[in-house]
Amino acid sequence: MNFANYFDTTPGTGCGATDASGQTHTARLDCSSRWVQNYLTSYSGAVFDLALDLDPNTMLASDLYSVGALSMRDFWSPSDITSKLGRFKIDKSLALACTVQNCQVHFHCVLERVPTTASVYHLSTNAALRTDVDLLWTLIGPLVGVISNAPASRTKPLARKRPSLIPILDEKGSIADRRAKGNANGTYWDSIIAEMTSSQNSIQAGIAVMRQRGLPQVVSELRVVDILVWMFRTNQQAPCS
To answer: 239 or 158, which is more confident?
Structure first.
C-alpha cells in the first residue's frame, strides 16, 4: 500500500465498522486513525513515542531503554544498556571538547548540528542535511555494538532523537522492504524518503484530522506512517476496530 492510501478520505474505502468511540469507519483514514490509537494505548512501543526526550542532542539511557520497547532485545537488559551508554558517554565527552568545524568523527557533533525541527521532507533537497543523516547511520553502528548494516539497531535510536527526520527500518513492520537496492550508508531509506515527499500533502492533511481526534503532537508524521505500516501488516486479518 502506498503511504498516501492510509489517509484516503474516499467514502467506502474504510472497513464500515463502528468502533468503541462511536466513529464509523467509512474511509481508510478512519481505520488508520483507529490503528494508531490502538497502537499508542495497547503496545509497548508507545513508550518510544510518548516518553519525553530529556536532551535531543545527547543519547541517554532513557532513549536506549525506549528503543527496547520496540522489541529490540539488545536494548532490554541493564548490562546491554550500560555497555552502549558507556560508548555514547565517551563520544559525548569527546564531542564537547571537539573544535573541528563540521566534525565527521563524533556522533554527538553530527547530531547537534542536525536541527531538531528538520523533517524527512527536507532530505531530498538539502544535501548537507542528507550527508549528516547518512553520517549518523555510519557513526552509530559501533556505539550500539553492530558492525553489519543492522538497520533496526541503527535507525531506531536515531529516530528516537530525530523522530520527524529519520525513517525506521524494521523488517517486522515491512518498512524496510521499501528500501532502495544498494549498500549501506543510508541508501536503504531512499525509497521511503521519496514516497514520504511525494505523498506529503495527503499525509499532512490526514494527520491533521488525526490530531483533531486526539493524536498527540509528539508523534511525528513520519512515525505515524511507520506505525500504520506495522499495524496494517501485522493485523491484516483483524477488523481495524
So the answer is: 158
